[in-house]
Design brief:
Distance between the termini: 36 Å
Number of helices: 10
Structural class: mainly alpha
Number of strands: 0
Strand content: under 5%
Low-confidence stretches: none
Helix content: over 70%
Order of helices and strands: HHHHHHHHHH
Shape: globular
Radius of gyration: 20 Å
Length: 235
């Protein structure tokens, strides 16, 4: 049932993001808590909302730009974190969130490629609508416009639950197999938050953005190294 709810919310967010309304409800700061609430863990959604918003602050649909699909990535990460935390018998802990980000963030890149296919599809629908209007068929033209919302919804409704399912399966398995990795991964979440802050500063073109970005990146790399060493250490 949780995956069906996630599919519905992710699909609606993908439509709202670019095709209808565009009230910023698909932004991570709003979408992640919504998904957490829909899946029964509002706090888990809130935990990942702020860093994801900062990470993808520059991902804005302007003109012909094709940024990463921040709504799709957020849906997969937030959904995966909540479902993984539930599988572990608790809520979304920082270590769970860290692994969910690592596993599900690439879904946002897949979403960008899917956006290109959607644009090609919508160009054909627009041409069809113009032809129908030329033949005085306004109702058919309106339906063509509505058809343009179907593909973004379907893509998000499929990819978000798939990404979340991957996280829900892998995250508990990793933390149960390597419990000593929880500590470094917990610190890693704060390193990720620092990197997200730097990314947000870069998107805002702050003067210190470059220094903050590399400082956050360095902290994230150090934590990742510690996590690898901890995993290779004694149980």
């Amino acid at each position: 049932m949780g995956y069906l709810v996630l599919a519905l919310v992710a699909g609606l967010a993908a439509v709202e993001r670019k095709g209808f309304l565009q009230a910023m409800l698909s932004r991570p700061i709003a979408l992640a808590p919504s998904i957490g609430w829909a899946l029964g863990d509002l706090e888990g959604g809130l935990l990942v909302a702020a860093p994801l918003e900062l990470l993808w602050l520059g991902a804005v649909n302007l003109g012909a730009a094709l940024p990463v699909h921040e709504a799709l990535g957020t849906a997969a990460i937030a959904g995966g974190a909540v479902l993984a935390g539930r599988a572990l018998g608790g809520g979304v802990a920082p270590e769970v969130a860290t692994l969910a980000v690592v596993l599900c963030a690439p879904v946002a890149l897949l979403g960008r490629k899917a956006d290109r296919l959607v644009e090609i599809w919508n160009e054909r629908l627009a041409a069809r609508a113009e032809a129908e209007l030329a033949h005085h068929h306004p109702r058919t033209a309106v339906r063509s416009n509505l058809y343009g919302l179907v593909l973004p919804f379907a893509i998000a409704a499929v990819l978000a639950p798939l990404g979340a399912a991957l996280a829900a399966a892998v995250v508990p398995a990793v933390l149960r197999a390597v419990p000593q990795a929880a500590g470094p991964l917990r610190v890693g979440f704060f390193a990720f938050a620092a990197l997200a802050c730097a990314s947000g500063a870069k998107a805002l073109r702050a003067r210190t953005a470059l220094a903050l970005f590399f400082a956050g990146l360095g902290a994230a790399l150090v934590v990742a190294l510690v996590a690898v060493l901890a995993r290779g250490g004694p149980a």
